[in-house]
């Protein structure tokens, strides 16, 4: 933890986005995480993505639970709304907030402990409801805040800092999410922003629940030899399948890519996500194919990254519920509250 | 790009912009930290090592360091380096006992012609080595143009006397009122080497109608000299200064103190083309000197044998797209009444005392042929420095010439090859004191540059000896020292330790770090996280990183040396190390 704040002085030639903001306007407070934490790099990727999309911070709500990962919303988008909730209960808060105000964009930041142990049930049901949000799992395979015990995502056989091997099989959030019907699933690596930033931009533009599992090495407790979530191991075993390239509504489609090499999918807001297939045998719109592809590579000890599954046709929570087009937070009190007489009439139907 | 060779002195030397920009390479951040710690004597000695006259230069230096200051590139004012130098001089103890005494006589005699900046520096460098220095001075006081051309309200005589005393009191055979009239006789005297530091003593004249019909038309530097030696103590009420360099600024402000009521500085060109330093213009205008642009002198108006005014052509220029001035067109003719005219339009060298028979080669401007590295003329053992070598520059350049010439003279007298120059070196020392603690003040200070307090306008004209600038007080000093970015505390990168977590890139406030694939310089500059368009500022490129084979690239341009990259680095791949460039002097060749 540094004793000084990040100085406000900026590069005088810093570019501004369409909202007139510089990258530095997307910063939050100074991080108090360990130096070199993958989570800080993810915070930077989030800032970069929102800067490039020219979305003003005040149009965003950040929600999180408990853990190293859940501290990070303080460190980006200082001008955004935020709620730091109970351990593993962030999905409920996000669902409630989204129900009340559908105008905001929601970022849920969670970790492997928060989502795959204490909060697994909440996580599953937010996917089932298809809450319109970007849900990030900053996945380092250990409980960093409690000194590095294995988490539910640690691979079997992965070594702890003192040498003992993990005896349990891991929960893979990507496979879990696809099997639960999640409509946007990707995996990134905190040490590879070149691919992480477009993944985040695509996830933000997705209508519905977008899960990004981001391998984020814990430099203090899980970056040693024998760990399967270290910087070096991830770099050596990472297998990029599909490179997402996000194109906003206003941008021209990239023309330098050979036709056929790129597959484009129209997103809900009119923007496009292009996929550059790195592996010919993989199609991110084929759900069953995706599951078997990920499983077969996992068996080989490889970490499959990139955009792994996308289905842009399903309806998010508000469509399913048929809720008001106007955000509930904007509705006048009379419309929100049907009144005693109307309640009496509704109840009478079941008497 | 190839990995940057940080073991060569130039890379980190260039990062310390002020030190790189200073002809004498004064280690500015180091002495500013000494001032911050209250070690004024240490700061003075650090200055003196390179610039020899900290008290003088702390007042009247041309300050090439300040436009070079990194803070200026961050849309801010540079650190008040020159003012801080004066703080060191104002508060230092008597340093005479701390200076090296005259060395054991080595039997060599050196003649210095003129007792100005360059000659004094040569003497300063050679005394500890045991040379006998004989210094010839035409006036009755040493100091050269520092004494005759800089008025005492900017540079008090006591400061000059003290700092010159630090040199001549250590055993220089100073011969005042002894002009040298013949190089040949000096050569015949059998000196082992001769150093010429006679300055550029001839003020330029102007050949216009009426020039020779009045004794109220003065050559600027001659007039300032007469004032300095108190041969002149008055001037008319209406004074015109022709020219707008720093000498013109000294002339106009001096005129105000000698009885001038309305003083106008007449410039031929628009303001952007003025030669005077911005701060000297400001100081003159604060004293209500009127600066009139676009007027070309045409004739002196003489009535009944008396100067009554001067005629000018008022000019009009167009500024082209390339920023160049067009040829002027004449708008009209104007006459401005005046009692005195002072010409401050430049200076020339003059060597009437150098006989052709000596064989000393002159160039097409009748100036001696002098080597820029050794300062030797075509005659072996005859050296030139200061304004006499390459025409008018400034005090700090004259000091540097003196240092270089002293090295040559020492080598010459020891029978060594004077073209074989001693090299610079660089030393790096970690400033790490603990986790996230450094032995320098690494936090960025947003304070604006502090203003110098001046003696009240109603008081300062009473006596020409009243120094206008009061110097920084303790509070001002305490704030200004924190503005220094400590550019000598270098970011040093050890690629073998890097795990590419991006923490340094993410935390850098000015986005000067990038991890990317290598390429040639133009290609790399186009791919950095923040625009890297200032090609005067170098890139620091690492070797291949162990995990991906990419490289770490740092654009040195806008690094504020806050050390956050090193604080956020989990493996200690970045370290903040103090760089110290060793500049060779004659005396360091012996140790």
Describe the model.
The complex is a heterodimer of chains A (351) and B (591). Chain A has helices at residues 38-53, 68-71, 90-100, 112-116, 120-129, 173-179, 193-205, 231-237, 287-299, 317-321, 333-336, 339-348, and strands spanning 60-64, 81-84, 105-111, 133-139, 142-143, 149-150, 184-189, 209-215, 238-247, 262-266, 272-277, 303-310. With 351 residues, chain A is α/β, with parallel strands linked by helices. In chain A, strand 5 (142-143) and strand 6 form a beta hairpin. Residues 250-260 of chain A have low confidence and may be disordered. A ten-stranded mixed sheet of chain A has the order 2-1-3-4-8-7-12-9-11-10, sandwiched between helices. A two-stranded antiparallel ribbon of chain A has the order 5-6. The longest helix of chain B has 19 residues, at 395-413. Classes of the chains: A alpha/beta (351), B alpha/beta (591). At the A-B interface, helix 1 and helix 8 of A face helix 19 and helix 21 of B.
- Gyration radius of chain A, in Å: 21 Å
Provide the spatial order of strands within the biggest beta sheet of chain B.
3-2-1-4-15
Average of the residue pLDDT scores of chain A: 89
Residue windows where pLDDT falls under 50 for at least 5 positions of chain B: none
CATH architecture of the domain at 100-200 and 349-413 in chain B: 3-Layer(bba) Sandwich
The number of distinct β-strands of chain A equals 12
> What topology, given as strand order, has the largest sheet of chain A?
2-1-3-4-8-7-12-9-11-10
Class inferred from helices and paired strands of chain B? alpha/beta
């Amino acid at each position: 933890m540094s004793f000084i704040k990040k100085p406000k002085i900026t590069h005088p030639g810093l570019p501004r986005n369409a909202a007139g903001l510089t990258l530095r306007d997307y910063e939050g407070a100074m991080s108090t995480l360990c130096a070199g934490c993958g989570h800080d790099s993810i915070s930077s990727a989030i800032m970069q993505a929102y800067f490039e999309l020219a979305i003003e911070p005040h149009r965003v709500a950040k929600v999180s639970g408990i853990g190293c990962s859940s501290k990070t919303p303080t460190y980006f988008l200082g001008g955004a709304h935020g709620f730091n909730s109970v351990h593993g209960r962030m999905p409920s808060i996000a669902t409630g907030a989204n129900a009340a105000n559908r105008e905001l964009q929601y970022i849920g930041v969670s970790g492997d402990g928060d989502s795959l142990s204490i909060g697994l049930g909440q996580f599953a049901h937010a996917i089932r409801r298809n809450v319109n949000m970007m849900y990030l799992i900053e996945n380092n395979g250990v409980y960093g805040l409690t000194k590095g015990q294995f988490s539910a995502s640690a691979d079997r056989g992965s070594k702890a800092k003192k040498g003992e091997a993990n005896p349990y099989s891991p929960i893979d959030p990507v496979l879990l999410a696809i099997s639960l019907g999640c409509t946007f699933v990707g995996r990134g690596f905190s040490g590879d922003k070149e691919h992480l930033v477009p993944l985040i931009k695509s996830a933000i533009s997705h209508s519905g629940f977008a899960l990004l599992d981001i391998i984020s090495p814990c430099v203090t407790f899980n970056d040693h030899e024998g760990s399967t979530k270290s910087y070096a191991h991830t770099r050596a075993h990472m297998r990029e399948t599909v490179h997402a390239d996000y194109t906003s509504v206003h941008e021209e489609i990239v023309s330098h890519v050979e036709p056929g090499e790129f597959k484009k999918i129209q997103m809900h807001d009119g923007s496009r996500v292009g996929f550059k297939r790195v592996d010919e045998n993989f199609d991110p719109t084929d759900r069953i194919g995706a599951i078997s592809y990920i499983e077969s590579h996992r068996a080989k000890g490889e970490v499959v990254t990139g955009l792994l599954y996308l289905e842009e046709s399903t309806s998010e929570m508000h469509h399913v519920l048929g809720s008001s087009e106007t955000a509930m937070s904007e509705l006048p009190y009379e419309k929100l509250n049907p009144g005693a007489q109307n309640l009496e009439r509704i109840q009478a139907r079941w008497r | 790009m190839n990995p940057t060779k940080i073991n060569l002195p130039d890379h980190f030397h260039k990062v310390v912009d002020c030190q790189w920009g200073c002809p004498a390479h004064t280690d500015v951040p180091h002495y500013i930290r000494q001032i911050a710690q209250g070690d004024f004597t240490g700061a003075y000695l650090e200055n003196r090592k390179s610039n020899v006259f900290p008290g003088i230069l702390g007042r009247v230096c041309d300050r090439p360091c300040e436009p070079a200051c990194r803070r200026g590139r961050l849309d801010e004012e540079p650190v008040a380096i020159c003012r801080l130098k004066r703080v060191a001089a104002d508060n230092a103890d008597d340093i005479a006992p701390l200076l090296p005494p005259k060395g054991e006589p080595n039997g060599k005699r050196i003649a210095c012609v003129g007792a100005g900046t360059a000659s004094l520096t040569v003497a300063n460098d050679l005394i500890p080595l045991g040379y006998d220095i004989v210094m010839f001075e035409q006036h009755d006081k040493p100091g050269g143009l520092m004494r005759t051309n800089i008025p005492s309200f900017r540079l008090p005589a006591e400061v000059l006397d003290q700092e010159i005393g630090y040199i001549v009191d250590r055993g220089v055979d100073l011969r005042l009122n002894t002009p040298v009239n013949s190089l040949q006789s000096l050569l015949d005297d059998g000196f082992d080497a001769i150093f010429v530091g006679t300055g550029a003593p001839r003020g330029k004249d102007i050949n216009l109608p009426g020039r020779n019909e009045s004794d109220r038309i003065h050559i600027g530097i001659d007039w300032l000299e007469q004032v300095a030696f108190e041969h002149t103590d008055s001037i008319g009420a209406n004074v015109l200064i022709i020219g707008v360099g720093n000498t013109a600024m000294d002339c106009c402000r001096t005129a105000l103190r000698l009885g001038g009521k309305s003083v106008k500085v007449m410039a031929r060109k628009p303001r952007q083309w003025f030669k005077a330093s911005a701060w000297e213009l400001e100081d003159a205008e604060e004293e209500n000197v009127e600066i009139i642009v676009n007027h070309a002198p045409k004739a002196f108006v003489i009535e009944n044998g008396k100067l009554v005014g001067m005629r000018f052509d008022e000019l009009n220029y167009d500024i082209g797209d390339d920023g160049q001035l067009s040829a002027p067109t004449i708008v009209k003719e104007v006459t401005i009444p005046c009692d005195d005219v002072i010409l401050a339009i430049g200076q020339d060298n003059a060597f009437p005392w150098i006989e052709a028979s000596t064989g000393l080669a002159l160039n097409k401007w009748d100036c001696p042929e002098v080597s820029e590295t050794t300062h030797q003329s075509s005659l072996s053992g005859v050296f030139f420095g200061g304004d006499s070598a390459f025409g008018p520059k400034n005090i700090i350049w004259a000091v540097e010439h003196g240092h270089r010439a002293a090295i040559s003279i020492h080598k010459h007298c020891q029978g060594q090859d004077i073209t074989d120059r001693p090299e610079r070196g660089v030393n790096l020392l970690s400033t790490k004191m603990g986790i996230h603690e450094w032995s320098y003040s690494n936090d960025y200070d947003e304070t604006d540059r502090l203003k110098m307090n001046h003696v009240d306008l109603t008081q300062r004209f009473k006596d020409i000896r009243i120094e206008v600038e009061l110097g920084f007080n303790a509070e001002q000093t305490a704030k200004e020292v924190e503005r220094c970015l400590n550019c000598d505390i270098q970011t040093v990168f050890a690629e073998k330790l890097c795990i590419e977590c991006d923490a340094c890139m993410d935390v850098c406030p000015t986005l000067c770090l990038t991890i990317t694939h290598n390429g040639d310089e133009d290609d790399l500059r186009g791919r950095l996280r923040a625009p890297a368009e200032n090609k005067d500022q170098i890139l620091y490129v690492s070797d291949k990183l162990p995990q991906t084979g990419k490289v770490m690239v740092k654009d040195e341009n806008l690094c504020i040396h806050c050390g956050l990259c090193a604080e956020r680095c989990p493996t200690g791949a970045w370290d903040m190390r103090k760089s110290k460039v060793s500049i060779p002097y004659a005396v360091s060749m012996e140790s």
